[in-house]
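Lab manual, section 2.4: Encoding a predicted structure.

Procedure: take the sequence of the chain (166 residues), apply the prediction step described in section 2.3, and record the output as structure tokens. A sample record is shown.
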Amino acid sequence: MRFTYCPDCGKKLTLRELGDEGPVPWCAGCDRPWFDMFSSAAIVLVVNDEGKVALLNQNYISTTYRNLVSGYMKPGESAEECAMREVEEEIGLRMYRLDLKFTRWFAKAQVLMVGFIGYTHDTDLKLSVEVDAAGWFDPAEALTLVHPKETGSVSGILVDLYLGER
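Recorded output:
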């Protein structure tokens, strides 16, 4: 999101050269820049002790592909805290290990995705109202059920990465 007006005082912003940043929206009234903003989200490939991965059906996201656990970060929350919270909220599992794998820009939604592989001893899924169905899948099968990695899908990239690490 690019600011047009100052969120603090409401004055119209002008562009001002700011070092290496180039032109940045600037509030003359507050004497400060307003950098472009975007959302950040965690996405987690949850793996159990048998090496199976959790996939979700969330019809509001896709009726064609299955999804990984994901969700937006809240103010003051780290990406790791978000990942742990989302896994517990969406499928009712606690993870004993969480490995940061990468960050990817998801242009369609204008979101920075932080990708993790998380490990749990638990297998009993307790679904939130956001999840229509979920289950455990062999990773090779999971790769055929999520958005294809060739499209830049963070889900596909995470599953493929896990397969390569096994």
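Check your result against the sample. The helical segments are 79-91, 139-145, 154-165.
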